[in-house]
Design a protein that fits this description.
Helicase, Ruva Protein, domain 3, alpha+beta, 294 residues, four-stranded antiparallel sheet, 21% strand
Length: 294
């Protein structure tokens, strides 16, 4: 499933085409994806102008001049492609991938007033789209319990200490809890914990002092999480299974993985002689170094 950097990369790819444009025509080619489409979905979108394109956790948010927000989730295999007549798609060398996949899985097509055509393709149909009133967005069931955004000023050591204080759950599990921190996924948590030198099995509560303040570990982890995510966004995300950009190209950050999917390889931390190990936590693979991560 695409993680936050991949979703942010998709948002940045869609933004120049969608923001300010009118949805002249919307093709809805089936009645449902993971869930049923909203009632009169295409009708409610047609003629509406996209005033902004944002992101909350792993959701894309297209604000409409009607006061509604088009909420889009990629699921596991969802992807958008952006096309305009006369424009050749860019493709970075060996990472080129056929844009959009099999056309039989093109389920929604947006025809925009500026000439762009945006196609949503989803082979496994685990993604979905919803229409939500902007005024009630934060209280909507999709967002009511979503935690803080890890990019930006909301995440710092003090915040992590406050969120994790008293928690005996493993640190990795706490970071993956979307009610605490929004959008973090397995790949980037593994990478951040390695860079911060913290064991994924460490009790989350150890990042808070007895007085509730942040430890040095909490400060270091907060900085590293932002760094890893920003590097991943700059690299266009990671290419695992079906993830591609809006232009059909693939991400590069997988070449910067230090531990993820590198079981048995030497730890890349300077001066460390450990070996990358794998363990299963809550049904997910965790990659870490047992020597330098404490």
């Amino acid at each position: 499933m695409p993680e936050l950097p991949e979703v942010e990369t998709v948002r940045r790819g869609l933004e120049p085409a969608m923001t300010g444009a009118v949805l002249d025509r919307v093709e809805q080619r089936r009645k449902d994806l993971r869930f049923a489409f909203p009632e009169r979905f295409a009708e409610r979108l047609q003629g509406r102008r996209v005033t902004a394109l944002g992101r909350r956790a792993k959701y894309l948010l297209a604000d409409l001049d009607s006061g509604e927000v088009l909420v889009m989730h990629l699921g596991m295999t969802g992807r958008f492609t952006v096309e305009r007549p006369g424009d050749a798609p860019s493709a970075p060398g060996d990472f080129h991938h056929a844009a959009g996949g099999n056309a039989v899985h093109d389920h929604v097509v947006f025809h925009l007033s500026n000439g762009f055509r945006i196609t949503y393709n989803d082979a496994r149909r685990f993604g979905f789209m919803a229409l939500v009133e902007r005024a009630g967005l934060e209280e909507h069931p999709l967002f009511r319990h979503v935690g803080i955004e890890p990019l930006g000023n909301a995440l710092d050591g003090a915040t992590l200490a406050r969120l994790f204080a008293g928690r005996s759950a493993p640190l990795k599990a706490a970071l993956l809890d979307q009610r605490l921190v929004a959008g973090l996924g397995n790949i980037y948590v593994c990478e951040a914990l390695h860079r911060a030198g913290l064991s994924p099995s460490r009790a989350a509560g150890t990042l808070a002092r007895k007085d509730g303040g942040p430890t040095a570990r909490a400060e270091r982890l907060a900085t590293v999480i932002r760094d890893v995510l920003e590097e991943a966004v700059a690299a266009g995300g990671s290419t695992l299974r079906d993830y591609v950009h809006t232009d059909g190209s693939l991400g590069y950050f997988q070449h910067a993985f230090r531990v993820y999917d590198r079981e048995g390889e030497p730890c890349p931390a300077p001066g460390c002689r450990g070996i990358v190990r794998r363990l299963v936590q809550s049904g997910r693979s965790t990659f870490f170094c047992g020597v330098c991560q404490r």
